[in-house]
Amino acid sequence: MMKNLKFVLLAFLVPFVSNTFAQQKPALTWKDVSKWNYNRGNSLSPDGQWMAWASGPTEGDLKMTIRKTLDTLNYSYAIGASAGPLLFSKDSKYAAFKVSAKDVEAKAARKANKPLYDKLTLVALADNKQTVFERVKSFSFSGDSPSWIAIQFMPLESAPKDPTAAKGTDVLLYNLSTKKSFNLGNVTEFAFNKGGDLLAYTVDANGQNGNGIFLRDMKTGITTALDNDKAKYKSINWNENGTAFALLKSNKNEKYKDEVFSIIGIRKINGDLTNKVIYNGLEDDNFPKGMGLNTNGSPYWSDDQTTLFFGINKLNKKEDKKTDTTNKTKVEPKKEDIEKPDMIIWNWQDKRLQSAQQTQEMRDKMFNYTSSYRVADRKFTQLADSNMRSVMVAPKQLYAIGYDNSNYELMGNLDGQSYTDIYLIDLKTGAKKRLFEKMYASNGGRLNIAPNGKLASYYVDGVFYSINLETGTTANLTGSIKSSFVNELDDHNITKPSTQNLGWSADSKFALIMDNYDLWKIAADGKTVIALSDNWKSKKTEVAGRYRIYQDEKGTDLSKDQYFGVFNVKDKKSGIGLLPAGKNKIDILFMDDNSYGSFAKAEKGQVYVYTKSNSQESPTYYASTTANLASPKQVNKNTPDQAKYAWTSGVKLINYVSAHGDSLQAALYLPANYVAGKAYPTITYIYERLTDGLNNYSMPSFPGGGFNKAMYLSNGYAVLEPDIKYKLNDPGMSAVACVVPAVKAAIATGIVDEKNVAIHGHSWGGYQTSFLITQTNIFKAAAAGAPLTNMISMYSLIYWNSGGTNQAIFEASQGRLTPGYWDNWDAFARNSPIYHIKKVQTPLLLLHNDKDGAVDFTQGVEYYNGLRRLNKPVVMITYRGENHGIAKAPNRKDYAVRMMEYFDYMLKGKPAPEWWSKGVNRLDMEKHLEVRAF
């Protein structure tokens, strides 16, 4: 077998030096992970001169750092145990952030069930003068003219807790230059317009006295009551220019169970002469009966302020009270009403399973049917309905696009192949016209609308097209390009899955569409085609996506510099590319063995920032003042404690050939203190394709699946991550065909100890792990999290997190088995771990939680009980109440420790943990839990 194995080793992507003779650093422990210090969150000031980030341990108190992007000046502030966002004022003179309680205080408060309140720190960046405000709920600077900061406070502890009690609290308007402040009482919501010269706010006071929507002129201080009523007001939504806004108003109505909402539209702002539009639909003959305005979305104005857009849903009337008018006696309920059965009826014709309807019940009740109200002629139009539920209002509000899958919903929920009818709705007339019938939707199936609202692009059967919404004229966009626009790496059961559509240029003249490598600039009529990346396919380099760096952009503005991620699929190098303004060629600025991300440009300055990292170096920020990102300056450092510990020595990329004859790759991460010629215990971690993350940094943490790569590398393990290419109707066998040759290729490097190789995966990776150990004995140990184990029973079980069946997931998504097992029994059985269980010789650690809403708990139980019946070594761990991944911190810690104990025993010869070697008596469980605590 070995002599026929074809593989090629690439050079180390990250240089390393053997430190055999250097002083050995200690390996990470799980206690160290609790104290692990790292950066999170990032803010760049509008002028680009300041950056801010929070940092601190995984558990404990944090600090906020604000520093000059291009200088060494920096400020540091204690912010408690949790980090919220930091906001800069638009003039970059001030910063504001919340300060939470310290970790010790927060834990004590949780035990005592006492409330805690955040503080707000306001910093003048010129001199670091700080102003602190107590009991802060929210805050906001005043838009583009940041003379003010508005701060809303939490209610007093003595405030009434009744659901019907007034919800308003104090808002402080604090002038940043004069330090003067003004208090607004009983405020529920507030919102500055874009310019920051106007503040809209709502009031909810005791007894609803003085409730209303108010507008304050921030320059003069004059406040106008735009509407007052014994009502509640919410969902203030300014238009983009800050010249108009809309909101909701609710009144009690004796006819209805629910409050009746109205829309208020405010425009032509001019003090008491401001134009106000109020609409609730109940007095409109065209408004659908039994419906009311929806409260679960924010109404908004059209760009020309002629039309209000909003949602409607069912409005429940109060039931008539039946009384005996003769003797006024109380009517007793009938016995048959009291003893009604509690049941669910599952009908084969249901478009959605009853479980799906139950899971999605609240969503259905709250569903927004998009509608509009044109002010001039008082015309209401319901755009969405029970069949055409999805309606998107296009830019410029000339048209809306509606999607109706009602004729295909049942079959789509059965086999996963989705279709939809697409309609064009004229927003002036309300007329609906079907553009496409039974459009294949499994690979997108939606129109990409141009910024002018008159053009759209779409994909059908391997080809991208455009359509003129005014004339209905279509054009073939990619037909003349000698390249494939079918995604070559998508191996799901989808007909010709599409490559990426990056949308339209800002002037709506060009569509930007990718093949598998190159980005094309295509005229809307398809007659002119330009490759913005010049035959990158020949170098296996691809445009990995566009960075959106301009505020409020509408499409890709080709008159401005545009930046793209670039990536080489062969050697995994990545970088950043620049398409200069007005040019037609992307220049690769740099490309190397690092991972780049978080690229941003200062809103009002010539400063560019991005992160850089690799398998050995955590993400750090760099900044440049030139468009070509020349001479970047490192802004910060990350993970300061890493230098104290043994760390991975780098990563190798292995090329190998699968048993199916496919050329694939695997990433082999080297253990700390690696010595050439020495073989190391190795964890093979699998999912699907993983090598694109070759240069990603692994942050020490307590993950939801138990495995943390950084922790294992620090403790002397190598980690292998192979790619898996799937064949339809053989998902498990495909994993075997790809993973086993990858392991053999890794062993051939001399780095992997062939006698001490383990495998681990979670969810779909858990399935592949469970299956692989039925087909090979190459692994000494295995750990599978939340695995599918019986593809036949799993096929018709329910994905409880959504309520739908797994059938669609199997036939058109990750399961890759189609059609149902009754017509494909051999494939389902051939790829089910449970049907090969007698061949398992590898010890298995199995994680399956009892409330798993993705992979049914019975899958784990069935595999565990089968292995146990055959007297094969297996332990299943279940965390009660946990879902598909482990969420609670004590449980995440516990499983991380147990998994490493297991692998240390199996691969390193350390003593077996008692919970593995002997089991745990239920009565002694508490003792074992206490031992785990740290």
Q: Name the quaternary structure.
A: single chain
Which spans of ≥5 residues are poorly predicted at pLDDT below 50? 1-21, 322-327
- Relative strand content: 25-35%
The radius of gyration is 31 Å
In the CATH scheme, the class of the domain at 2-17 and 642-932 would be Alpha Beta
Look at the structure and name the CATH superfamily of the domain at 2-17 and 642-932: Alpha/Beta hydrolase fold, catalytic domain
Tell me, briefly, the overall form: globular
| Biggest beta sheet attributes | 10 strands, antiparallel
Overall average residue pLDDT: 93
CATH topology of the domain at 2-17 and 642-932: Rossmann fold
- Given helix and strand content, the structural type is alpha+beta
Approximate helicity band: 10-25%
- Kindly report how far apart the N and C termini lie: 47 Å
The main sheet orders its strands as 6-7-8-9-10-11-12-13-14-15
Please state the second-level CATH architecture of the domain at 2-17 and 642-932. Answer: 3-Layer(aba) Sandwich
The tally of strands reads 54
Total of DSSP H or I helical runs spanning 4+ residues: 16
Provide a descriptive summary of the structure in words:
With 934 residues, this protein is α+β, with helices and mostly antiparallel strands. Among the domains are: 2-17 and 642-932, Alpha/Beta hydrolase fold, catalytic domain (Rossmann fold, 3-Layer(aba) Sandwich), CATH 3.40.50.1820; 39-281, Methylamine Dehydrogenase, Chain H, CATH 2.130.10. 14% of the residues lie in helices and 34% in strands. Helix 8 crosses helix 9. It is globular, with a radius of gyration of 31 Å. The protein starts with 6 loop residues before the first strand and ends with a helix. 41% of the residues are buried.
